[in-house]
Structure formats: C-alpha cells, structure tokens
C-alpha cells in the first residue's frame, strides 16, 4: 500500500483522462490532516467540466457536508445514482455524522466496485430496468435523502465476510466448519430450480453461483455474457467446477449432491476462477434471497436486509430499515438485475414504487 500511494502521488499521467470519482478513488488510501482535503486537496487535478456542479470550497462545512457535495455533484453530472456505488461501510456499519449514503473518502477501501463504465453505458442506452428516471435528489440539511424505488427481494441466507485468503490454493474447510464456497456449492447443487429458469434441475443455480462469485467478469476483466463463443462461456463454468472439485479434494470432503466435474463440458483451470472470484468477493458476502436468487453484496449486509432498485440506480442496492429510515449498506450484484439484462419475468417481481428515506 505505501508503494501504491507513492506511485499515485508522483505519477499523474492518467489524471487528465480520469473522472471526478476516479481521482477520489485513486487517492482514497492517502492521508490528510484536514479530512476535507481528501476532496478539496484534489480539485486541482480535476477537469473543469467535472467541477461544473461542484460548490465553492468552504472549510466552514463539516466533513459530512463536503463528502455529500461529491455525491450531489456526481448525480447532477451523470443524472444517475452511480455515485452511491462507492459507499463502503466495512464488516459492521455503525452510523456516524456522515449519512449512510455518502462515501467515506477518508477511509481506505479495498472493495471492488461492481458498477463499471460498460454497465453504466448499457444502462444509459437501455430502458433503465423499465423504471422511472431519477427526478429529485435533494438531501436535507440533516443529511436525510428521500429516494424512490422498488423492493426486489429480502436476504434470507448469507455467508460470512469473504477475503482474498478464502481463495488461496490451499484454503480448506472441514466437516464441522465447511469452506464458505463449499457451503454455497451444497446449497446451489441441491437447488432443483432457479427463479426464471425453465429447467427443473440444479444446473442453472450452479451456473448462477459461478457468475455471482466473479460479479459476471472473467480473470481477464471480460464480461462472461459478452464472451464471443459458447465454448468460452463453457470454459468459464468448467473453471468454476474444477475449482470446487479441487476444494472438495483438498478438504477431504465429498459433494453431498454430485461430483462437479460430472457436469463440466471441458477441462477447467481453477486458478483462473480463483483470481476472478478473489477480486470480486474480497470484503463482500454472498447471499441468497427469499425467492432463491444469488447475489454478491456488501460485507455489512445481514439476513433480513432488502435488495432494492432505486430510480436512477444502474444496479441494485442493499438497504436496512431502522427506526428513523433506511441505511444504504452498499451496491450488490444479482445477475438478472444487471444493466445488460432486460427480462420482463424478472421485472414482474418488482414491488410497488415507494419512497426510502436514507439516513
């Protein structure tokens, strides 16, 4: 991390092409005596067009207000809630004077962002999940923010928080405490259906787990759904099945359902899958919803939290209801809800539109 910080400090060759948020992310691990300077200290590196909506520098503002200005600027510029995808609360969320919907630029973050430029472009050029556009983004002086959206489902099962060590080659579990990936395999491989699938077997559930664990991206940063050939997609799935086979073998366990390699259509490479999954899952949790969807969510998510689609939100978010409103815990990946997918059977599961008061 010290080397990365030094490199970012002295090598600014990519800065002219970086967006407002990308610059803040690049310097997120740096320190500042005045926490307002985690934003104000970087304004000189930003393009004039990115600062069009940013208010004048004002050190009389609280840190929370300055960080909220970043979100407001991002929303005005993009006409979307993409800025909220940078919220990272860690394993436990404890409310502070910074609202839950405001990214903490003073806190180091190693969590990969699920939303990328390709997803945002697809969302902008598509029909935005068939939901209304964002029409109002007006936080109150107390930091409360009312946003409209629809509920999708509730989290009913979730893993512990994962990290890169869970995907080391010799990482194992035991009969008493199975590796979280084996626990997930046991659930998926015994699930004889997956929501929206016409097939009554466990294959679709298993394939959806593979996509979920990598947030739909290969070790080479290619989107699985955009791979040129079916052979390439089958290779991705074979890599996952080989990874599970090896994990069972190393742990001295047998699959209670079926041998993973029995459904692999080609020879797999477990290392490729480990790279992609460790990158996506680090500091996140895998969950299952009441309807049976698999998702990759924030580390602070728990059973009972709600997956919602907010108007203007390119991807789903996980919210938690509290006494005075809702906490925004972070973004999440659920394959049928990603911007590239327009499925009326999935959208039919959306609840009625309602207002969520984020605090």
TrEMBL record:
InterPro entries: HetReg/Transcr_Mod (IPR052895). It comes from the Eukaryota. This is Heterokaryon incompatibility protein. It comes from Colletotrichum fioriniae PJ7. The lineage of its organism: Eukaryota, Fungi, Dikarya, Ascomycota, Pezizomycotina. PANTHER family: ANKYRIN REPEAT DOMAIN-CONTAINING PROTEIN 39 HOMOLOG-RELATED, HETEROKARYON INCOMPATIBILITY DOMAIN-CONTAINING PROTEIN.
């Amino acid at each position: 991390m010290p080397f990365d910080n030094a490199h970012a400090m002295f090598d600014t060759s990519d800065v002219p092409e970086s967006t407002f948020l990308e610059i803040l992310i690049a310097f997120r691990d740096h320190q500042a005596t005045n926490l307002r300077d985690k934003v104000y200290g970087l304004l000189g590196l930003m393009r004039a067009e990115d600062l069009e909506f940013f208010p004048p520098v004002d050190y009389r503002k609280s840190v929370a207000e300055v960080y909220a200005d970043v979100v407001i600027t991002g929303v005005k510029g993009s006409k979307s809630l993409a800025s909220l995808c940078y919220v990272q609360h860690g394993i436990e969320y404890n409310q502070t004077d910074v609202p839950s919907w405001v990214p903490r630029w003073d806190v180091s973050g190693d969590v990969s962002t699920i939303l990328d430029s390709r997803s945002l472009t697809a969302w902008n050029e598509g029909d935005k999940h068939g939901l209304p556009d964002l029409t109002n983004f007006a936080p109150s002086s107390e930091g409360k923010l009312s946003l409209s959206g629809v509920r999708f489902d509730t989290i009913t099962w979730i893993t512990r928080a994962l990290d890169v060590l869970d995907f080391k080659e010799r990482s194992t579990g035991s009969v008493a405490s199975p590796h979280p990936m084996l626990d997930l395999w046991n659930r998926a491989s015994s699930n004889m259906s997956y929501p929206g699938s016409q097939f009554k077997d466990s294959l679709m559930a298993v394939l959806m787990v593979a996509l979920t664990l990598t947030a739909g991206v290969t070790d080479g940063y290619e989107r699985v759904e955009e791979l040129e050939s079916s052979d390439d997609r089958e290779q991705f799935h074979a890599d996952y099945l080989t990874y599970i086979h090896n994990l069972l073998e190393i742990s001295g366990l047998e699959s209670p359902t079926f041998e993973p390699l029995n459904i692999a259509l080609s020879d797999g490479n477990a290392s490729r899958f480990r790279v992609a999954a460790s990158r996506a899952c680090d500091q996140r949790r895998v969950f299952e919803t009441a309807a049976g969807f698999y998702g990759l969510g924030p580390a602070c998510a728990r059973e009972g939290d709600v997956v919602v689609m907010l108007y203007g939100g390119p991807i789903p978010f996980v919210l938690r209801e509290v006494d005075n409103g809702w906490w925004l815990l972070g973004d999440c990946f659920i394959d049928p809800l990603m911007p590239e997918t327009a499925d009326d059977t999935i959208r039919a599961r959306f609840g009625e539109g309602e207002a969520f008061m984020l605090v």
